[in-house]
Design a protein that fits this description.
The chain is an alpha/beta fold. It folds into 2 domains: 8-89 and 243-401, 3-Layer(aba) Sandwich (Alkaline Phosphatase, subunit A); 95-237, Alpha-Beta Plaits, CATH 3.30.70. It contains 15 helices and 13 strands. It has an 8-stranded mixed β-sheet, sandwiched between helices. Strands 3, 4, 5, 6 and 7 form a 5-stranded antiparallel β-sheet that branches.
């Protein structure tokens, strides 16, 4: 695998005007066969439009973090935007808060919350509380805000709904910090974990104590709920302040995403959220077409491929890939200088979770050197000319194909 990462100073020096770029991310795109020798979700899907682009473009497999490392969604997306996720560490809570437009302050400590279901002994039976509807999430966060009023004398706390079982928890006060662990054990049949500080700092110890106090109070408040009778927190962190996408690449970037967390990671690097109605791929491409003249770079995020993978729904993931394929001609009609189709990570339905497998990637451009294959799938990508590469190098390659990089040197 090629090892160099994107040099931000070099990109800034070489950037120039050129064609528009679309980064189409089907979350959790990579998969595995259901049976030995069978086809993955992507290989099973009927994708005539993506296959046509594959025959005219370049294929490869991208590695989000490092070979063999299973990535979270935040680091995987930062990697796609060109940021080495081992250098730029972002807590998921920050992404979730920014995704709903919460105005984080420098001292704020944010977490992504998940409502959950526990049995009478406190063991988790459903980490997502059956994916309760967003209306229930709104009611439950209001219940928690009311019950938590006045809990702390020297800190403010905020509990805001996101979508389905997800919410944002923010603790605002002086002297908060540290390296805080999650309460979610990431498995059913286990009890939630306490928040611990791994920094050894006074700020971390104080933050852990306050968060644990609130979590215990919140769980008592939810105990009478039929489904969402508990909760967990993940990604407790503060906004680190990142180099901005526009300054690095010289492109004004817009983000189209249904789920707030992905608007959050885009916002963190300086992309502007493009608001739209609807939740289907066609609605997102409607938004792309409507904003086409306003931006140089578009990040379009499809969530359901990952959701079906996590739920173990092979056929549902196949159907969502096919729904995206139907929209490809509409993207082509807009005339992009380069189109990337990939995922942030793999989420095989047979595993029901994120995995470490490299991600199938297609780079199409009028300037592309066509690959020999004619199908967009894992095995075709493994034989593609892009090879196995680090995801951070994707945007520079797309910029070159779109004519957005000047020559280096005389």
């Amino acid at each position: 695998m090629a090892s160099p990462f994107t040099d931000f100073a070099l990109m800034s020096d070489l950037s120039q005007e050129g064609g528009k770029i679309v980064l189409l991310v089907m979350d959790g795109l990579g998969g595995l066969p259901r049976t030995p020798g069978g086809r993955t979700e992507l290989e099973t899907a009927r994708t005539p439009n993506l296959d046509r682009l594959a025959a005219a473009g370049s294929l490869g497999l991208s590695v989000p973090v490092r070979p063999g490392v299973e990535p979270g969604s935040g680091p995987a997306h930062l990697s796609l935007f060109g940021y080495d996720p081992l250098r730029y560490l972002i807590g998921r809570g920050v992404l979730e808060a920014l995704g709903i437009g919460f105005a984080l302050q420098p001292n704020d400590l944010a977490a992504r919350g998940n409502f959950a279901t526990v049995d009478g002994d406190g063991f988790i039976t459903d980490r997502r509380a059956g994916r309760i509807p967003t209306e229930a999430c709104i009611r439950l966060t209001a219940k928690l805000r009311e019950a938590s009023a006045g809990l702390f004398d020297d800190c403010e706390l905020f509990v805001e709904p996101v979508q389905e079982h997800r919410f944002v928890f923010v603790l605002r006060g002086e002297g908060l910090g540290g390296e805080l662990t999650d309460t979610d054990p990431l498995a059913v049949g286990r009890k939630p974990l306490p928040v611990r500080d791994e920094s050894g700092s006074g700020a971390g110890a104080r933050a852990a104590e306050l968060v644990n106090r609130w979590v215990a109070h919140a769980r008592r408040t939810l105990a009478d709920e039929p489904r969402a009778n508990s909760l967990n927190l993940r990604g407790l962190a503060q906004d680190p302040g990142l180099p901005q996408f526009g300054d690095i690449y010289g492109m004004r970037a817009g983000a189209i995403a249904v789920y707030p967390m992905y608007r959050g990671v885009a916002s963190l690097v300086g992309m502007e959220a493009i608001r739209f109605e609807g939740e289907r791929p066609r609605d997102e491409i409607d938004a792309l077409a409507g904003a086409w003249n306003s931006y140089d770079f578009f990040f379009v995020h499809i969530k359901k491929t990952d959701s079906y993978g996590e739920d173990g729904d092979f056929d549902g993931k196949v159907a969502e890939i096919e729904a995206v394929d139907e929209q490809i001609p509409r993207i082509e009609a807009l005339g992009p200088g380069a189109l990337i189709v990939t995922g942030d990570h793999s989420t095989p339905a047979v595993l029901g979770s994120h995995s470490w497998h490299p991600v199938p990637t297609l780079l199409w451009s009028p300037r592309a050197m066509p690959d020999a294959g004619g199908q967009f799938g894992e095995r075709a990508c493994a034989a593609g000319q892009l090879g196995v590469f680090h995801a951070t190098t994707l945007i520079p390659q797309a910029m070159a194909h779109a004519g957005r990089l000047k020559r280096f040197g005389a």
